[in-house]
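Researcher: Structure prediction, please.
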Amino acid sequence: MTTLLMERAGTKGSLLRNLYKDFLLECLDIVDDTRVEKVYRIYTEVALLRREVSISIDQAGKNETEKLLKPPTY
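Model: Predicted structure follows.
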């Protein structure tokens, strides 16, 4: 249920983050601003991480294990 809410309800999961990331990329074609580039890179990473969280929650629910909810160790 949590994954469903994250990906299909509310903010539509990574959808809006990806749209905004793409918008920022298009902005870089118009303006040469390192701040826009920095935010673009941040949103790219955030969208990927948000998707990974959603997948982990979904897999944990399907496998009925909390192990998948623990953050990875680097």
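Model: Residues 2-69 form one domain.
Researcher: Thanks, that helps.
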